[in-house]
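RECORD TYPE: inverse folding
INPUT: structure tokens
STRUCTURE:
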């Protein structure tokens, strides 16, 4: 049965009216109900573009179609659009390009099931003679990239050496539908090394002096990629309005940025991706909106339409939901909208969590977060608010435990201050947790009307909210007793804090600093030119200068160099270099130099020089842990000097190199155990691979590789291309399918009889991967088939497994 849309306005441009299907008309319908709107005839000389503004909100089966027909014969020429994914209250604008020549009519059809109850409507249909990317959009644009025309977006600009790609599966699911069948545009860095690509909107006009662009992006393990957004009017480009940062886990994340606009000129918004020679990974964009006016306040949401620019985390067990009510608890905003909730008890498991993360927010001064909550029932565990600006800087700032709400239908008010981050970019996290005690009784955790007030102080409410303090990173083991050391410095002394090391940096404004974390420093000031005069206090949380705990005590001192985020030209190459030099070393026997280091930022580097010659270096983040380095010092009849050099390049975040606990042992490094490379542990950073033996009865050898010459671009230990690992690859010289490589860890012989844990990290990729076996015992009995275990866990190739 056909049904005509109400309010027929062919090729109308009146956005104050709309055409819609009425759910009441489906009563008594057959299995499906069809509404069909036909346009008057129009001609296309070479290529044309139809712009349709539409929206669709429902949960039952419903599809919006646009079909092109020949005007004279009625022959169907092609399906221009088929959309069955629901959306929000805002209209979406879709461009449909027509490449046929002739005279045509359009059919805009809605097909719904008889159970349908929702909104299927459109309010503007425009025809433009010419390609879709030549259209000038007045004041509003939305694109979900579900049509081949890409809404008129340009995937490259003049001078580009790479392009953005419209496709699926980069990442595994798009943002619009959360499906592997959905589409996004993406920049594949590994195929664009040393290249640049721009994604640009079609031309737009604005009736306001400010515009807002909202979009979702996914950083799929990209490295060495610069990704930014700017606006352009004519030849005038704005400064970057937004720069992608590397602090967060890989999720679809929302961004909203405002910028100035000249209403007399046309505007385009541009997303720029720049790859370096070592770039890997993918950056993707989806669901782009550009509109006139200022963007809404960041992180604020009443949840009436959706969760705004908040993200459901993938590292939890449950999802927050938006509902009209939870029992007798109703929407707080107006009573007839939606709230954010989690039902506890019942089918949930004890300790399950649901985590929601805000968009990245710029906070340069203390801000105030307010919201309304209800925690009801014995199955409620807790509601936690966290502040997160990097994997090293994530801590809880507000916590309520248990079903503290007396009545299930009453809202309570909460407020708490949000402190500025060292890099002024923060995620706010809401974590709801089910009680650890199993309970069949249902309860709920509910939140509504979140408001973030920038540059406004407030107190913690309710007063019963606990305020956890951040914990320092794990403390690494200190050296085991060994023959005496010649020099040692833990930077804990009140006088001579550097233990006769001196700062010989050429740049007097960039030197090593002595830092005390977590507790006030009570020692005297450092004297002389050896190091910056100021003893800086604080931690990464407040200063952005180093880890939140030292290596020696967890609350003591270390030396550090840091660099603020780059301002201006993000492609400038100047590095900040600082050098710390040891006292003179004059020793006639082999000795061992040991120290601990902590680095953060992909453009951070630390190296060690003996008499000016490079002996060791590491680049990139070390992870949230102090790591050790052991270096053999050859005997010498003359004075030697050891230099520890910090090299900090330009980056989009605060980066640093930190050092603690330097030792010079009067023995060889084989006699010094720092807890990271004993006979029972090996990180494969040295070619002798901890004296493990390549078996002779096999048909191939394991290859010692790093990210520059191996199958994978980074190792596990350091997550950089400088780190090493072992591989067996079908691409390596001399290896053919079916060959076997065996590594003999025979020094595990004669160990006491008891239970042991054997741990390793495995990564495999490609097709027909082969097998990795662990064999134990005198007769080498098969203990574990690692590849089979990974497949049993549902893991796919090219995935690291612990």
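DESIGNED SEQUENCE:
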């Amino acid at each position: 049965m056909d049904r005509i849309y109400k309010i027929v306005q062919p090729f109308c441009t009146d956005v104050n009216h709309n055409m819609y299907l009425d759910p009441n008309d489906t009563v008594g319908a057959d299995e499906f109900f069809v509404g069909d709107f036909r346009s008057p005839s129009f001609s296309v000389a070479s290529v044309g573009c139809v712009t349709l503004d539409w929206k669709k909100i429902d949960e039952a089966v419903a599809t919006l179609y646009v079909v092109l027909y020949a005007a004279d014969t009625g022959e169907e020429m092609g399906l221009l659009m088929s959309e069955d994914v629901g959306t929000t209250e805002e209209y979406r604008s879709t461009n449909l390009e027509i490449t046929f020549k002739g005279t045509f009519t359009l059919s805009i059809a809605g097909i719904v099931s008889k159970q349908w109850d929702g909104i299927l409507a459109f309010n503007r249909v425009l025809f433009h003679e010419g390609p879709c990317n030549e259209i000038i959009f007045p004041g509003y644009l939305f694109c979900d990239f579900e049509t081949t025309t890409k809404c008129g977006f340009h995937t490259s600009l003049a001078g580009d050496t790479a392009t953005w790609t419209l496709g699926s599966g980069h990442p595994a699911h798009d943002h619009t539908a959360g499906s592997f069948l959905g589409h996004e545009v993406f920049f594949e860095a590994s195929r664009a090394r040393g290249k640049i690509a721009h994604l640009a909107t079609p031309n737009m006009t604005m009736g306001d002096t400010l515009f807002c662009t909202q979009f979702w992006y996914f950083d799929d393990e990209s490295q060495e990629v610069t990704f930014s957004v700017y606006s352009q009017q004519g030849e005038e480009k704005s400064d970057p309005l937004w720069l992608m940062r590397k602090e967060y886990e890989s999720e679809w994340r929302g961004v909203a940025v405002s910028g100035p606009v000249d209403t007399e000129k046309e505007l385009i918004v541009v997303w720029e991706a720049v790859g370096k020679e070592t770039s890997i990974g993918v950056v993707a964009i989806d669901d782009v909106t550009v509109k006139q006016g200022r963007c809404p306040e960041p992180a604020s949401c009443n949840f009436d339409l959706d969760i705004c620019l908040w993200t459901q985390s993938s590292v939890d067990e449950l999802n927050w939901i938006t509902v009209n009510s939870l029992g007798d608890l109703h929407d707080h905003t107006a009573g007839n909208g939606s709230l954010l909730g989690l039902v506890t008890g019942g089918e949930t498991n004890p300790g399950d969590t649901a985590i929601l993360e805000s968009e990245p927010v710029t906070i340069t001064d203390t801000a105030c977060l307010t919201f309304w909550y209800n925690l009801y029932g014995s199955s409620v565990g807790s509601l936690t608010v966290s502040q997160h600006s990097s994997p090293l800087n994530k801590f809880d700032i507000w916590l309520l435990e248990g079903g503290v709400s007396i009545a299930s239908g009453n809202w309570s008010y909460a407020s708490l201050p949000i402190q500025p981050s060292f890099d002024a970019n923060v995620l706010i996290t809401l974590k709801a947790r089910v009680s650890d005690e199993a309970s069949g009784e249902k309860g709920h955790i509910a939140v509504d009307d979140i408001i973030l007030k920038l540059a406004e102080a407030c107190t913690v409410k309710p007063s019963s909210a606990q305020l956890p303090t951040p914990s320092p990173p794990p403390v690494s083991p200190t050296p085991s007793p060994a023959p005496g050391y010649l020099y040692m410095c833990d930077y804990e002394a009140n006088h001579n804090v550097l233990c006769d090391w001196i700062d010989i940096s050429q740049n007097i404004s960039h030197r090593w600093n002595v830092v005390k974390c977590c507790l006030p420093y009570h020692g005297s000031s450092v004297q002389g030119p050896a190091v910056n005069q100021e003893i800086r206090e604080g931690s990464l949380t407040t200063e952005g200068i180093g880890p939140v705990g030292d290596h020696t005590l967890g609350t003591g001192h270390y030396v550090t160099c840091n660099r603020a985020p780059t301002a201006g030209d993000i492609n400038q190459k100047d590095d900040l270099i600082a050098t710390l030099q040891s006292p003179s070393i004059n020793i006639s026997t082999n000795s061992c130099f040991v120290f601990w280091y902590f680095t953060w930022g992909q453009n951070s580097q630390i190296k060690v020089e003996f008499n000016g010659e490079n002996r060791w270096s590491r680049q990139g983040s070390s992870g949230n842990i102090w790591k050790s380095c052991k270096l053999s010092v050859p005997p010498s009849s003359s004075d030697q000097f050891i230099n520890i050099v910090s090299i900090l390049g330009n980056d989009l975040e605060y980066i640093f190199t930190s050092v603690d606990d330097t030792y010079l042992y009067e023995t060889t490094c084989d006699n010094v155990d720092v807890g990271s490379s004993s006979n029972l542990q090996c990180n494969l950073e040295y070619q002798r691979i901890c004296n493990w033996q390549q078996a002779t009865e096999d048909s191939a050898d394991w290859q010692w590789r790093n990210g520059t010459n191996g199958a994978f671009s980074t190792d596990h230990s350091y997550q950089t291309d400088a780190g090493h690992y072992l591989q067996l690859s079908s691409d390596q010289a001399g290896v053919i399918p079916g060959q076997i490589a065996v590594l003999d860890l025979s020094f595990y012989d004669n160990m006491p009889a008891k239970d042991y844990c054997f741990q390793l990290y495995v990564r495999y990729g490609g097709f027909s991967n082969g097998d990795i076996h662990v064999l134990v015992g005198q007769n080498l009995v098969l203990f574990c088939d690692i590849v089979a275990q990974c497949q049993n866990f549902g893991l796919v190739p090219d995935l690291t497994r612990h």
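NOTES: DSSP finds one helix and 53 strands in the chain.
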